[in-house]
Write a structure and sequence with these properties.
This protein has about 100 residues and is mainly α. Helices cover about 75% and strands about 0% of the residues. The longest helix has 19 residues. The two termini are about 30 Å apart.
Length: about 100
Amino acid sequence: MHDSVYEMAGDDPRLAKLLRASLTKLAAGPDGRLKELADGVLGGHVDLRQAAMSDAYSDELGAAFGRFWSHYEQLDQRERDELVGQTEQQLDNLLDEPRPS
């Protein structure tokens, strides 16, 4: 994995593990450009920060964020709170440990 992932995670092993899991999921997915980005970062050939800011991937990243934001905006506050709680639980499960207090 490219060193930029660890730098972006601030040397926090939990965040680095989450970024690796996210990149692995993207690498296994159907989206050609995001798959290419993830494969490059996981293979140590692509700097994650530079790739995320690059025009080469901006359309795909923007579209993915747009889909998320459209969904999020339709949620009421209770649903947003539930989503946050579910996400925190999934993160704890993924990382095999609760977040630090």
